[in-house]
């Protein structure tokens, strides 16, 4: 983990956060600072809520119950208890703990919405959330509990519960403690909620949006690495680089496809293996689709990512709450908490991830099959018959791809009505986000197996030399891709997957050819 003191603070206020801001705070513990203008906007909107609180007429979220109980008027002396009861009752998550970076992302995004001044919460609420983030305190949030409408209610409620000094948290060192003890150790006073504030803390799409930001960041590394592993496989299988020529790509001018093809050309430049069969006596006319069409699939993934980034940008600029305090001082109910815009692109990305991994697995299988590998030993085994080589590594990749196809089934087409049919259509965006995280992990593992397989196949083409870039990729895997008698294979697979996931393989290639698209 990056030390807090080494990172510049992320300013949170009226300006929209970026995906990079979210990742810096969530994954790398960057501190947050609050802008004076945003705190002033919170004070202004709070004055509107205070005026409504004094009104004998009911106002949703201020002087009424919630959801199906919205018609129940609550006397003023009971409203602090109303907010406390809301947070306690909605902190109803179940299952395994959610990852620290996800919790920090959703906390930051809820803080960002508070600072728009559209929720009616007091500045102290935002200041407390910022202090909790900066202290490295992470509320315990559970896997199940959100339907993605009204936002991520249960996950956000567990965070709000910690802010009022209740429920479990993890401290900066990862130790599980009571919230009250952790807040006291950090010198943070627990919040005492007033009208509207409990609702303002739990009514948003922050969990699914935070996971979208993290997923897009991971995919930026992985989609470029997929171009690398595809190029390594083209080389290992004595394939051609001619389909990736600029003039051919220009005939179908998708920018993502062109970027992927350019990456593959650059990675294959100077390959002795490719040059060895660029001769008149080469009788092969076309490579298999998993080689020749690699830019088309990787380019389509890039297009999907571009759409998802656009949606994320809109969401990062949003104030998601219900009701909201408008700029002209009205308090209005709305439907902005519905997670459909985010849920759809989370599902779309899961489809793209599954297909990218599926094509990678097909190349792995081709390198292991002597009928299609153009001279490589069966399963790249050292002593055929005695050794099984990478036979079962392909099984592992195939098993992962099968799971990714299941995870590609959209969550957002499902809806389970809740709250006595008041909330009769929900987005399931949280579930779309959770399965995408699993899918991205699977993609990294499949690409790691492909890199390991192609690197071993390269070495078996000696004395023909790989390109400088693919050679650097193989070297980044160290002995984990080395040929030889059978050995315990799981550590090699895990190491290769880690080298892909962390960007080590991509960085090795970029050290030779410069930044990839």
What can you see in these coordinates?
The protein is mainly alpha-helical and 517 residues long. It folds into 2 domains: 200 residues, Fumarase/aspartase (N-terminal domain) (Fumarase C, Chain B, domain 1); 295 residues, Fumarase C, Chain A, domain 2. Helices cover 55% and strands 5% of the residues. The chain contains 20 helices and 9 strands. The chain has a 3-stranded antiparallel sheet with strand order 4-6-7. A two-stranded parallel ribbon has the order 1-2. The protein has a two-stranded antiparallel ribbon with strand order 3-5. β8 and β9 form a beta hairpin. The mean pLDDT is 94.
Overview in brief:
It contains 20 helices and 9 strands. It is mostly helical.
Average pLDDT level: 94
Largest sheet: 3 strands, antiparallel
Amino- and carboxy-terminal Cα gap: 27 Å
Shape: elongated
The proportion of strand residues reads under 5%
CATH class of the largest domain: Mainly Alpha
Radius of gyration: 26 Å
Second rung of CATH, namely the architecture of the largest domain:
Up-down Bundle
Whole-number total of structural domains: 2
Total strands: the figure is 9
Specify the helix fraction band.
40-55%
The secondary-structure element order is EHEHHEHHEEHEEHHHHHHHHEEHHHHHH
Question: Within the largest sheet, what's the order of strands?
Answer: 4-6-7
CATH superfamily membership of the largest domain: Fumarase/aspartase (Central domain)
**Which class best fits the helix and strand makeup?**
mainly alpha
Number of helices: 20
The CATH topology annotation of the largest domain reads as: Fumarase C, Chain A, domain 2
Instruction: Give the low-pLDDT segments.
Output: none
């Amino acid at each position: 983990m990056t030390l807090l003191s080494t990172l510049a603070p992320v300013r949170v206020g009226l300006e929209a956060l970026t995906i990079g801001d979210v990742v810096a705070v969530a994954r790398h513990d960057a501190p947050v600072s609050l802008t004076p203008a945003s705190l002033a906007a919170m004070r202004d909107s709070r004055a509107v809520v205070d005026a409504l609180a004094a009104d004998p007429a009911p106002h949703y979220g201020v002087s009424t119950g919630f959801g199906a109980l919205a018609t129940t008027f609550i006397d003023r002396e009971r409203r602090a208890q109303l907010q406390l009861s809301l947070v306690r009752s909605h902190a109803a998550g179940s299952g395994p703990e959610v990852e620290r970076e996800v919790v920090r992302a959703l906390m930051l995004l809820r803080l960002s919405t508070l600072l728009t001044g559209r929720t009616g919460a007091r500045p102290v609420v935002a200041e407390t959330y910022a202090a909790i983030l900066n202290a490295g305190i992470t509320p315990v949030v559970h896997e199940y509990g959100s339907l993605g409408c009204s936002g991520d209610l249960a996950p956000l409620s567990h965070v709000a519960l910690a802010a009022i000094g209740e429920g479990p948290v993890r401290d900066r060192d990862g130790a599980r403690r009571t919230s009250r003890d952790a807040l006291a150790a950090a010198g943070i006073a627990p919040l005492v909620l007033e009208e509207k504030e409990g609702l303002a803390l739990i009514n948003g799409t922050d969990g699914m949006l935070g996971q979208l930001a993290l997923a897009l960041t991971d995919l930026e590394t992985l989609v470029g690495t997929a171009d690398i592993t595809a190029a390594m496989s083209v080389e290992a299988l004595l394939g051609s680089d001619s389909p990736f020529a600029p003039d051919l790509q220009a005939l179908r001018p998708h920018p993502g496809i062109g970027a992927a093809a350019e990456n593959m050309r650059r990675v294959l430049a100077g390959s002795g293996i490719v040059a060895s069969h660029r001769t008149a006596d080469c009788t092969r006319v076309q490579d298999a689709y998993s080689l020749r069409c690699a830019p088309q699939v990787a380019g389509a993934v890039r297009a999907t990512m571009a759409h998802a980034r656009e949606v994320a940008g809109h969401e990062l600029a949003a104030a998601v709450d219900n009701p909201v305090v408008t700029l002209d001082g009205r308090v209005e109910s709305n439907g902005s908490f519905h997670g459909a815009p985010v849920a759809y692109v989370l599902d779309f990305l899961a489809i793209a991830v599954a297909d990218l991994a599926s094509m990678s697995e097909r190349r792995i299988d081709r390198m292991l099959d002597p009928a299609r590998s153009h001279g490589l030993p069966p399963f790249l085994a050292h002593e055929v018959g005695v050794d099984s080589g990478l036979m079962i590594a392909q099984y592992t990749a195939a098993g992962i791809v099968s799971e990714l196809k299941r995870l590609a089934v959209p969550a957002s087409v499902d809806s389970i009505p809740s709250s006595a049919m008041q909330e009769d259509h929900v987005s399931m965006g949280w579930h779309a986000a959770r399965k995408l995280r699993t899918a991205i992990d699977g993609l990294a593992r499949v690409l790691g197996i492909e890199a390991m397989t192609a690197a071993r196949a390269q070495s078996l083409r000696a004395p023909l030399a790989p390109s400088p870039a693919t050679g650097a990729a193989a070297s980044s895997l160290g002995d984990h891709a080395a040929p030889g008698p059978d050995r315990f294979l799981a550590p090699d697979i895990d190491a290769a997957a880690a080298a892909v996931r962390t960007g080590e393989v991509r960085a090795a290639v970029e050290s030779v050819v410069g930044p990839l698209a």
